[in-house]
Write a structure and sequence with these properties.
alpha+beta, 4-stranded antiparallel sheet, 24 helices, 16 strands
């Protein structure tokens, strides 16, 4: 165990006797699958080392959902902050299989302060370094990736254009550094889109497996690269994917960022220093049998597929909420309207059920069109001819990728066509735009139906979320439908961006895929979030003004339509005209003219007759 401890960053500055002493303070913990080691807001008590198995670190997302942050596996450590103080945990930790851990209790560690102050100071210095790095990584998007570089040390790397100093802590290399400098466009790095990083790692793992099968990769490199890819799939090292989401070069910077991070992590796993590429090279090993042009677009497709699954969950939940309101409001009669004018009666429940059905159709549209993203040109390399990749590689890499992702991926039928074509993005973007348009229309309706409260329709009440004016007391605005409207407008614009970028392809490649990727990702993320907010902060809490709805039906000219089959169109028109001019009700005028009795009218104007059978 002494050797294992010496390789853990927190203890790597200790000598042999100090390692033996600190290990004597650890206790062994055998945890069953699904056991929580700690939960959010629990007091920090232990420092953990994973001996066998794995532990997921979870955070609580909005609305109570648990989201995986990272997975710790053999020889990983976590909870080092527990040796500093007993502040509450901001995350939860749960085993996802039977796991063996060693843990050091803070109270036992504190006892060492008096007897072994030098040992404790060494450990605390390392803990401070680890925690500082983790904190800076967590804020890299907001404060810039330069905040990750703590030591001031660097390593010298070279490429086609010359030599550059790369920060020693960085797992990326010189080509990523140049891309960082060349594309300070949005200030948002690709690490924001974890699905994309995971997809890249999955493709790189499939590639190293296929190349190993073909005898092109030594066993030690194969194992180290596979391990590095697994770690990235488990959401480690994502902060080292630092290139801007919008970049020139058709995604080459993103591909090289992945190649360099994987290579440098593999070097560490093999016992070498970062940057010693003679042992594991970003191009010669990680990018073997590949081109950016058959890696980057396929990562976009896989990431889009993963995001689609999350999008569908939000959509299904919204449909369910609307349908629940349809059931709740099924007995409330109201006026239907066409062209903002009174039409014929319906129930408020029918209105909300129609919204549910309208959006439910989009689930099927999404399922149909997302399949277009599962056709990959992997193995086509630069332009689809497969240069530098063997036919065996093309067959093997797709098989490995299916196993790694669990998705029924398929090879393109024409790799040259597939390398230059962006039609699948275009069609899928149009599906997302259609969903956005439908959501916006529904939100328009919600704003109209809740307008007032005294000078509008006032048929429904939206949940009151915040004061609506800095000058008008008592005003509350429909802020949730408003924000969903704005999300929809943005998505419509993103779809146009994708259209223009798709059209801009030339000859054997479309170099505009970075803007296609970020536009797709932003559409899916914003729609998912908008639907989640719309459900929880608006639809779930809507109430009906039953009396208002009833009064509008009774005073509406629209109910005269139900009398057409009995009185005829001309007579009904005459009644409607008199009602409009006099302000009297339809029923009063019909009875006064002795066209029908009160009993006959009551039978004709029953809710069951008025609202139909649909």
């Amino acid at each position: 165990m002494r050797d294992k401890l010496s390789k853990i960053e927190v203890f790597k500055t200790l000598d042999e006797s100090e390692l033996d002493l600190i290990f004597s303070k650890f206790e062994k913990l055998e945890a069953k699958e699904g056991m929580f080691l700690f939960r959010v807001n629990d007091r920090r008590q232990y420092f953990y080392i994973v001996e066998k198995g794995s532990v997921e670190l979870l955070k609580i997302a909005p609305y109570g959902k648990e989201v995986k942050v990272i997975t710790f596996r053999k020889n990983d450590f976590f909870g080092e902050g527990g040796l500093l103080d007993d502040a509450p945990h901001s995350t939860s930790a749960k085993t996802n299989k039977e796991t063996i851990l060693y843990r050091l209790k803070k109270s036992d560690f504190d006892l060492l302060f008096d007897e072994h102050p030098k040992l404790v100071s060494k450990i605390l210095a390392q803990i401070s370094r680890v925690m500082s790095r983790r904190l800076s990584n967590a804020t890299a998007v907001a404060s810039g990736t330069a905040s990750q570089y703590l030591s001031g040390k660097s390593r010298l790397e070279h490429d086609l254009l010359g030599e550059r100093e790369v920060p020693d802590e960085a797992y990326y290399g010189i080509q990523t550094l140049r891309a960082q400098e060349n594309f300070p466009i949005t200030g948002v790095s690709i690490s924001l889109y974890s699905d994309m990083i995971i997809a890249l790692a999955q493709i790189k793992k499939a590639a190293i497996k296929a190349n190993h099968d073909n005898g092109l990769i030594p066993e030690n490199i194969y194992k180290a690269v596979s391990k590095a890819c697994d770690e990235i799939i488990d959401r480690k090292f994502h902060s080292h994917f630092v290139v801007d989401v919008i970049q020139g070069g058709a995604g080459t910077s993103t591909n090289m960022n992945a190649n360099e991070v994987i290579a440098n992590r593999a070097l560490e796993l093999m016992g070498y220093e970062r940057g010693q590429y003679e042992h594991c090279h970003p191009n010669n090993h990680i990018n073997l049998s590949q081109s950016t042009n058959d890696i980057y677009p396929n990562a976009i497709k896989l990431a889009s597929y993963y995001k689609t699954q999350k999008l569908k969950v939000a959509l299904v939940n919204l449909v369910e909420s609307l349908r629940n309101k349809g059931s709740e409001f099924s007995d409330i009669i109201k006026m239907g309207r066409t062209q903002l004018q009174d039409a014929v009666p319906m129930t408020l429940g029918q209105e909300f059920e129609a919204y549910a059905q309208n959006l439910e159709e989009e689930i099927e549209r999404i399922d149909q069109n997302v399949k277009l993203l599962l056709e990959l040109n992997i193995g086509g390399t630069a332009i689809g001819t497969g240069l530098n990749a063997s036919p065996e590689y093309r067959d093997k890499v797709i098989v490995h990728l299916r196993k790694i992702t669990g998705i029924n991926l398929r090879k393109s039928t024409n790799y040259i066509e597939a390398t230059q074509d962006t039609g699948s993005y275009l069609i899928f973007a149009s599906v997302l735009k259609r969903l956005a348009v439908k959501l916006s229309k529904i939100c328009n309706d919600l704003r109209l139906l809740s307008s007032g409260p005294r000078a509008g329709l006032n048929e429904i009440n939206l949940p009151k979320m915040q004061p609506g004016s800095s000058i008008m007391p008592g005003k509350v605005n429909p802020v949730i439908p408003e924000v969903v409207n704005q999300v929809a407008f943005n998505c419509i614009g993103k779809e146009l961006t994708i259209t223009l970028a798709s059209e801009a392809g030339q000859l054997e490649l479309n170099v505009m895929e970075p803007i296609i990727a970020v536009s797709l990702f932003e559409m899916m993320d914003s729609l998912k979030n908008a639907m989640t907010v719309l459900k929880s902060k608006c639809i779930d809490g809507i109430t009906a003004n039953r009396d208002v709805c009833k009064r509008m039906v009774e005073n509406s000219i629209g109910i005269v339509t139900a009398l057409n089959p009995i009185l005829g169109y001309e007579t009904s028109s005459s009644i409607a005209k008199e009602a409009l001019e006099s302000g009297r009700s339809i029923t009063d005028i019909v009875i006064e003219r002795k066209l029908m009795s009160r009993k006959q009218l009551d039978e004709i104007l029953t809710p069951e007759h008025l609202i139909g059978k649909f």
